[in-house]
Amino acid sequence: MDRTHRRNVRAAAMALSLFASAFAQSTVTKPGQPSKTNAPLGQFEIVGDSIVSAQQLFLGTLDKVYIVDKTEGNPTKINGHPAWAAEYSLSKNGGRPMDIVTNSFCAGGTVLGNGTWLNVGGNQAVKVGGVQADSQNGGGDYDDPDGGNSYVQRLTTSALINPCDDESCEWVITTPMTTRRWYPTLETLEDGSAIILGGCDWGGYVNSADQDNPTWEIFPPTDGDVVKSDILSSTLPVNLYPLTWMLPSGKIFLQSNWKTALLDYKTKKETALDDMIDAVRVYPASGGSTMLPLTPDNNYTATLLFCGGSNLQSDQWKTNWDIAAYNASDSCVRITPDESSSYVEDDPLPEGRSMGNLILLPNGKILMLNGAQTGTAGYGTEDWTLNESYADNPILMPIIYDPSAEKGKRWSRDGLSPSTVPRMYHSGATLLPDGSVFVSGSNPHADYAVKNVKFPTEYRVEHFYPSYFNERRPEPVGILSTLSYGGDYFNVTLTKDDLFGDVNNVKNTKVVVIRTGFSTHTMNMGQRMLELQMSYTGNTDGSATLHVNQMPPNPSTFQPGPALVFVVVNGVPSMGVQVMIGSGKIEAQPTAKLATLPSSQVAAASSGNSTSGDNSSAQGSNDSKNSAAAGLFGSIPSLLVAGLLSLSLLSSLL
Ligand SMILES: *[C@@H]1O[C@H](CO)[C@@H](O)[C@H](O)[C@H]1NC(C)=O
Ligand SMILES: *[C@@H]1O[C@H](CO)[C@@H](O)[C@H](O)[C@H]1NC(C)=O
Ligand SMILES: *[C@@H]1O[C@H](CO)[C@@H](O)[C@H](O)[C@H]1NC(C)=O
Ligand SMILES: *[C@@H]1O[C@H](CO)[C@@H](O)[C@H](O)[C@H]1NC(C)=O
Ligand SMILES: *[C@@H]1O[C@H](CO)[C@@H](O)[C@H](O)[C@H]1NC(C)=O
Ligand SMILES: *[C@@H]1O[C@H](CO)[C@@H](O)[C@H](O)[C@H]1NC(C)=O
Ligand SMILES: *[C@@H]1O[C@H](CO)[C@@H](O)[C@H](O)[C@H]1NC(C)=O
Ligand SMILES: *[C@@H]1O[C@H](CO)[C@@H](O)[C@H](O)[C@H]1NC(C)=O
Ligand SMILES: [Cu+2]
User: Fold this and answer.
1) Which residues fall in a coiled-coil region (predicted)?
2) pLDDT in tens, 507-517
3) What is the pTM (predicted TM-score) of this model?
4) Which of 242, 262, 313, 317 is the most buried (most CB within 10 A)?
5) Is 387 in the pocket of ligand 4 (CB under 6 A)?
């Protein structure tokens, strides 16, 4: 398919998503049960072949994981050259190669507020062995035009209809930018645009002054400014893929090498916070990192968790010594940057770990998996490497962190079993709608390498099944397909079966929103989880209605764009449904006050005594809190279109 054709396909998909957004208040189809039954709990299962190696991966629709590799000699071909991108169908456990055109080597990515995914930056064109190609405009061994010039590649998936599920989606090149970015980080902003930070011109294990790009810019461009960052300018050589999160305060947390800052991108000013402690967390030390779930209980205050990495000082990032034998850090730290500028020690890992991803699970716990006990990210040809790998001693055992457990008891391996597949440099993981975790990738090599090497180029896809996986899943009815920032609450109904036969389980029910993010280099850019405010009415027949508030009226708390919603009863999540957060457009998001929720109530099931019973609030639905947020029912009338058109109906109308 030529590029003109691809643009036409894209234009059609865009028109479809615009039409769908007119039915903003429709509800999603009731989620069912996982197709997988009798899953091996706490274990990994090899389920499929990723076609290309999963250096980058993300969940784009309920059925599709998009995989992006660097240019290399993968055996699967597309348009006459090796493929380095793929669309993987979860229902088919296989898929098709895609043509991502330029060399996407160590690119960054995120999803915009309108449902379009970006893949930004990369490396120059290469030929066999990963060495510079003779032409930067395509042709040669791999036909891979230069990707370093910050090309933005765009792939539209939509929360409302899934144009990609008919395999019509392709990556298209949009704006070539003015600066080169290899290893940039992307973060979606509160208006649904994205900030693109950092990177270098030509790559390498770490950055250097002669090729540094310590700047940021916004896509789609507003004033076109490329703004110099103080912290990125002062953290060589370990300032690639800085760790960033949009905070509820509207500032961007920015962590690079040992330094930390808050960036106010509107005034283009940075404020220093305390230095990182114990270990470097950014690439190539590659600690795991995530924002902890934002909940009514913590007043939607962001706390960031960093685990593992490597404690090298800035002058030790040289490749003339045996890095692969050097112990990774076991340190975990937390910071709550809108409240405190300091890091605090958290429970350490049982062993040091570099390249361990932290994946938010819908039950509020955090799974750590992948990575190695010694060494760091990266590869090279020095004589101390393990067939190019800069890391050794893969950690096959996952481990689970409970943010709400008391200090000293947060990590657990109860009921968990190891994987059989080392996941070294260039691997990734993401949560899936069925609550399992997709794991793929590993390729610490300049090119495709499978023969006689310790850590081969991996295509095996695994699922990890958390302990809740085989439970009957709640099947909530009434989840809106679009959530606004404030406004009227909505009702979600659960049957007696959904409440495991006991209406009182409604007191231990939560509605959570998760953005699974863009996984690469031990980061899941954009990953975040928010528990909605709710109260409940338990009925005498054992069913219940959840009264669920919209998103907090602050888009910096959870940026606009597609996300999954799960209803979690006693720690057992429903299947995730895909919804759009916000207006579906890149724009200042409309906000309104949150509604006052009805007070929580459970009727005594056998007596029909509906005036008695338990008035206790569900978590986060304090009467005091609700009256504080009181007001403005129907303040966004344009969204109050009756919610009768289900997703499937809508699709069939089209
Ligand atoms: C989303 O916005 C980007 C940037 O303006 C644009 O390239 C893309 O086509 C938009 N997607 C949709 C579905 O409108
Ligand atoms: C949340 O806010 C309330 C009211 O301002 C306060 O009483 C409470 O301590 C806060 N909780 C946390 C965890 O910060
Ligand atoms: C590295 O870690 C291993 C395993 O925990 C430990 O036995 C060894 O003493 C550590 N080496 C150094 C130099 O700290
Ligand atoms: C991988 O390393 C081993 C051990 O050093 C060596 O014997 C082998 O030849 C290497 N493989 C390749 C493809 O170089
Ligand atoms: C939600 O359900 C309650 C009864 O449980 C009803 O009074 C209320 O009108 C419903 N609200 C909406 C927004 O549907
Ligand atoms: C209704 O609940 C109240 C308070 O718990 C109790 O005193 C009363 O006996 C109940 N009535 C019936 C018919 O169960
Ligand atoms: C529940 O709330 C109602 C109205 O506020 C009150 O009359 C009743 O006593 C409360 N019941 C319990 C068990 O607290
Ligand atoms: C309920 O309100 C009290 C104070 O009024 C506060 O301390 C507590 O954190 C609130 N609980 C929830 C779940 O919001
Ligand atoms: Cu890389």
Assistant:
1) none
2) 999 999 999 99
3) 0.86
4) 242
5) yes
